[in-house]
Write a structure and sequence with these properties.
The structure is a single chain. This protein has 13 helices and 17 strands. The chain is α/β, with parallel strands linked by helices and 462 residues long. The strands form 3 sheets. Strands 6-5-4-3-7-11-10-9-8 form a 9-stranded mixed sheet, sandwiched between helices.
Length: 462
């Protein structure tokens, strides 16, 4: 649509043609369908309550996206797409419904419209829902003097934007007024006072709830990030970390040989090498028992570790030892974690928005924590909720992502967004029901032209 004239501030060749086009029609039908479903669920009743959704169109800049809104005065169980209003992002009515057969009047625009627009403007919402559900009224009556509702240790709050079972959900409560539009000021004040909230309760009335899409307005996401090629340049791993581990493996094993940690590392490596020998993998040599002597054991370990690093093996035994070697490097200021410049801002933004952020990398959890602890931007671990490595499973196996979805406090795998630079990992995540995006960064392997995934070059795009 580039280069065409604007209509009502909306850059389309013909506004009326666009309003009658497939994208807007599908959104109108969706709102009508949700109204009927919400009526069945008891979330809206009669003509009460309302649903509004931004028209999702990648060809239109977000500030210019249109808004479809259900009207007032129409029974929700009888709602059809032709009953919808279409508004500009500034709240101007661009399209209104035709008169109903009875009472031969045009349904009026929702009295909630000013409140919906505040949620869009202040929270960058993609959908806003207003419900008169009985439950939302009852929670405001528990303590008539309280200006907020708090709850924790409730299973279903795992589905709320960035919350787990042990987290506390806080929703502000505002007082009801005789006319809905008069709530606009107090709603704005509540959003300002509770910048992380995705809902506002109205005492003895109902609730306004929003999200970045109509799905998110009901249940929100967390984000799982790969490291190499996603948060961090591949070159940092291949040109800095791997050589450091290779060059210091002998020194590390000699100085820590008798520690419990290194004994555990050796046993893991010994078991891995036995498995490799049985499979006929080249480059591995038997590791003698401990009674063969420290020097002989260390020499065989060095040979095997160097071969594993050269082959870029994604195995727990190697990754665990590497993490311990790198820890010494970070502690001695010989290493510093590297992330792309857009990463710290995005982590802070997502975290402040209530999104839970996890890391899933083939590197050990120890190595992951070290990278984010020791960056030029400071310690970024404060934005992260947890770390997954190959002990949960291979990154190209869908079962691994099923395990992650069971661990991060969501009701459905689709509530998780996984970002990686590896096509096969994206395929595995998608097979497990997660949303997946592929990261395009300098030095990453090229993608085939027929892949089906959305791509990004910066976290600023999310």
């Amino acid at each position: 649509m580039a280069g065409v004239a604007a209509a009502n501030g909306f850059p389309v060749l013909n506004l009326q043609a666009y309003l009658e086009g497939k994208t807007v029609l599908e959104t109108r039908a969706l709102v009508a369908d949700l109204c009927r479903q919400f009526y069945t669920l008891g979330w809206v009743s009669g003509t009460g309550g309302s649903i509004t959704i931004k028209v999702h169109d990648d060809s239109i800049p977000k500030p210019d996206q249109l808004i479809v809104m259900s009207p007032s005065g129409v029974q929700k169980e009888r709602m059809i797409s032709e009953d919808m209003y279409v508004l500009s992002s500034g709240g101007e009515v661009l399209s209104k419904p035709c008169p109903k057969s009875y009472p031969h009047k045009t349904p009026k625009c929702s009295d909630c419209a000013p409140l919906f627009m505040k949620a869009y403007q202040m929270c960058n919402a993609g959908a806003v829902i207003h419900s008169h559900g009985m439950e939302s009224c009852l929670v405001t009556m528990i303590n008539p003097l309280s200006n907020e509702f708090r709850i924790a240790h409730m299973e279903m709050i795992k589905g709320i934007f960035g919350h787990g079972y042990y987290d506390e959900l806080v929703i502000p409560i505002i007082e009801n007024t005789a006319y809905e539009r008069e709530l606009t000021k107090s709603l704005s004040e509540a959003i300002s006072a509770y910048p992380k909230t995705t809902a506002v309760l109205v005492r003895n009335h109902g609730i306004y709830v929003w999200g970045d899409s109509w799905i998110s307005a009901k249940t929100q996401k967390c984000i799982v990030l790969d490291i190499e090629g996603t948060t961090t340049p591949i070159s940092f791993v291949t040109e800095i970390l791997f050589p450091y581990a290779r060059d210091n493996v002998r020194k590390h094993l000699i100085s820590t040989y008798d520690t419990i940690e290194t004994k555990d590392d050796i046993e893991l490596l010994r078991a891995q090498v036995l498995d490799d020998l049985e499979k006929g993998i080249l480059g591995c040599t038997p590791i003698p028992p401990d009674d063969a002597g420290k020097e002989e054991v260390i020499e065989s370990l060095v040979v095997n570790v160097e071969a594993m690093i050269k082959a870029d093996r994604k195995i727990t035994a190697l990754k665990q030892l590497q993490g311990h070697i790198w820890r010494t490097g970070y502690d001695n200021n010989e290493l510093q974690g590297v992330v792309f410049n857009d990463v710290p801002e995005a982590l802070e933004r997502w975290h402040d928005g209530g999104i839970k952020i996890y890391i899933y990398s083939s590197g050990s959890r120890e190595a992951q924590r070290l990278i984010f602890r020791n960056t030029v931007h400071g310690d970024l671990r404060k934005y992260l909720c947890g770390f997954f490595d190959t002990t949960i499973g291979n990154k190209r196996d869908a079962k691994s992502y099923c395990e992650i979805s069971q661990s991060v406090g969501v009701d459905k795998p689709s509530e998780i967004l996984f970002i990686t630079d590896v096509y096969q990992e994206a395929v595995a995540a998608k097979a497990a029901g997660l949303e997946a995006i592929i990261s395009i960064r300098p030095g990453n392997a090229p993608l085939s032209e027929n892949h089906e995934f959305k791509t990004i070059t910066s976290f600023a795009e999310i």
